[in-house]
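Annex B.
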Amino acid sequence: MFALILSYGLSRMQFNISASKKEFSKDEHIPALLLFHPQVSFQDEEAYKTGKVILQDKASCFPAVVLNPPASADSAVIDATSAPGNKTSHLSTLICNLGTLFAFERDRKSFSTLQKMFSKAKCKNVEPINADFLAVNPMDSKYSKVTHILLDPSCSGSGIVNRLDYLVESEQEVDSVQEDRLNKIAAFQLMMINHAMEFFSVQRIVYSTCSIHAIEDEHVVRAALESAEALSANFNLAPPSQVLPQWKGRGYANEMHDPTSVVRCLPGEDATNGFLVSCFVRE
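S-adenosyl-L-methionine-dependent methyltransferase: predicted structure tokens.
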């Protein structure tokens, strides 16, 4: 087991920083998350080298917590896009290294890195699979007991603070070229959600992105709900009470029927990367 540690994204005002900058605080929203000053380095720390500590932005911790799979020997969970493995290792911890956690990664090089990370973090319940999640047959008996799926597919990455995209991109500033690119990404993201909904026993699907754009976020969520309705898949969004109710940031107004059912983080406002988290539940 390990602690999740946030190495950046919080202002100096939130800590009593000494010259060594070693002070930390426990996060108020995420269990096992410790918050450190952005300038603290863990590269030479033994706990980091041995996988006992994982460095991750606070917002990136939200998907696993919202998915909330049961800690049971019978648990069957899928992380559809596992690399680099931080969210997968977080899930592994949340279910106490029990059950089976299928971790998909289609890129061979990334898959090799993924395997090393799981070994270092001692994730004994993870089964890494070098395959495209979209190519997996939902009716395969191997996945017949999967009840929870985490989807964090490729996105524009416009919410990542150290890319500084959020300083130059906004919903109003998306030009036609950028909009075409975002629409293509959104089509792929929607395909991932629709595929996840085809798994026979799945009860809960978390879809997240590190994007600030409604095209990839609220619009995709809205389209997934419409697809579910058209296919009689019986999926709806989890109520706000099940999606980090203590977090104030919610979806963009007027972009979906109930923006309070999704969690949104805004860079520069929430001391995190830009992020959106939604949760589909089968009725």
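The chain has two domains: 3-55, 60-282. The radius of gyration is 18 Å. Further annotation is deferred to the next reporting cycle.
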